[in-house]
């Protein structure tokens, strides 16, 4: 059974940084595009960032562009999300997800992702 396990969440002050990790197991990591999504209380799950299977392409929502960086290490079956200049609006549960792709591309839509982690809470205090 495929497992995606997020870590690195926590409580941080506004303006601070966190680095999330997502370790994948029981899948051929290098053929999956990976994405990060988040869900705040009472809101729909939203796209944050995605990276192609090679790592050569990255995509960001306008709300995080310039502050967050997604990366991956295919040798370690892990995808990362470096989050800088955090603000209260970034408070949410963050999920990583895997999407099998035949091309070196990535999608921003939740419906295309096959596998999801359980999420990690990020809380930004103002």
Residue-averaged pLDDT: 97
Structural class: mainly beta
Tell me the β content: over 45%
Biggest sheet record? 7 strands, mixed
Unreliable stretches, pLDDT < 50, 5 or more residues?
Answer: none
Distance between the termini: 40 Å
* Rounded Rg: 13 Å
Query: What is the strand tally?
Result: 11
Element-by-element helix/strand order? EEEEEEEEEEE
**What's the multimeric state?**
single chain
Number of helices: 0
Structural topology:
Elements: E1 3-7, E2 10-13, E3 18-25, E4 32-39, E5 46-51, E6 58-60, E7 68-73, E8 78-83, E9 92-100, E10 115-116, E11 120-125
Parallel strand pairs: 2-11
Antiparallel strand pairs: 1-3, 3-8, 4-5, 4-9, 5-6, 7-8, 9-10, 9-11
């Amino acid at each position: 059974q495929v497992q995606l396990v997020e870590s690195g969440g926590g409580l941080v002050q506004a303006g601070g940084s966190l680095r999330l990790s997502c370790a994948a197991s029981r899948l051929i990591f290098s053929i999956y595009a990976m994405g990060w999504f988040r869900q705040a209380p009472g809101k729909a799950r939203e796209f944050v960032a995605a990276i192609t299977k090679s790592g050569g392409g990255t995509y960001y929502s306008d709300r995080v562009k310039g502050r967050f960086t997604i990366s991956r290490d295919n040798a370690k079956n892990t995808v990362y999300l470096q989050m800088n200049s955090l603000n209260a609006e970034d408070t949410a549960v963050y999920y990583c997800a895997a999407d099998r792709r035949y091309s070196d591309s990535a999608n921003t839509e939740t419906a295309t992702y096959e596998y999801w982690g359980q999420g990690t809470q990020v809380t930004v205090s103002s």
